[in-house]
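If your schedule permits, I should be very grateful for your opinion on a structural question. Please examine both parts with care and let me know of anything in them that strikes you as inconsistent. The record follows directly beneath this note:
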Amino acid sequence: MASRGMPLDTAAIFSTAMEGILYGFSVLMFVGTMWALTRKRRMKEINRTNTAVAFMLLILSTAHMIVDIVRLEQGLVTYRDTFPGGPAAFFADVTQTTFVVKNIMYSLQTMLGDGMVIYRCYVVWQSVWIIIVPSLLWIAMTVCAFCADYKLSNATSEAGDVFAKPTGQWITAFYTMSLASNLLASGCLAYRIWRMERNVSAIRTSNKSMMPIVRVLADAAILYSVTILTGLVCFVEANNGQYIILDMTMPIISIAFYMIIIRMAMKTTRYGHTSTIGMGTETAREIPQYHMKRMPVEVHISQVTHQDETSKSAY
């Protein structure tokens, strides 16, 4: 299938530049995330799951950025005059080691980001049943990612065309499964918190609300979902813009993860305490506690008098 859109060498330059800008922003947010996770906490109080995931996202984003720079240098400098077809043909060759490696990193980053959304959904609901469908979609996405990367690394006659059917069908399925899994898990997570907010709104005395958390969850889901949907549309239309979206998605996944933790840390700082509403992770700890209204209680005390010949006693 012939690709459309801008030339691949131009797309490579533009995608690397955009990824570099977003990567720098994600590094800044990583620093803020580490501050949010460790501020005024003892070592045993630090959420190890979120900390480990934050570091893994940073490592994958950094490695992907390095591979992209190496790939750009190879296509435009090292093999510019020796690769058959020039830079455009080099960037179109799906069997290039740098292309396969960057796609593997993208698959890992996506699986990690989507997996964390599903994990948060489970922790909030405290039920395995609510995450069955997102988990099945995540497993299907993992299979599609493995098959797509395998097909890319072993492509022969289809080399130079990422949109060819042997690879294209797996990549399309990967995009679709990732989008569906993220939307479903994020929707269930936001709905649960919104319902908790609605249940306690009538009986609390403070103005503390969980709606900002719902909004930041929605913002993160929309940011990621719009990016994935754009990439899916570009890929289905065989547009070279999908290369740009692919590179931009790497830091966007990190940014979507970091912005949730930072927003919750800001809310905690504002209210000056940490909540214990039953989630057990950083996602839960940052939800504000609610002070319930004191309801008047009427107490009726009855008196029974027993009298006999010698004494009188009251109970």
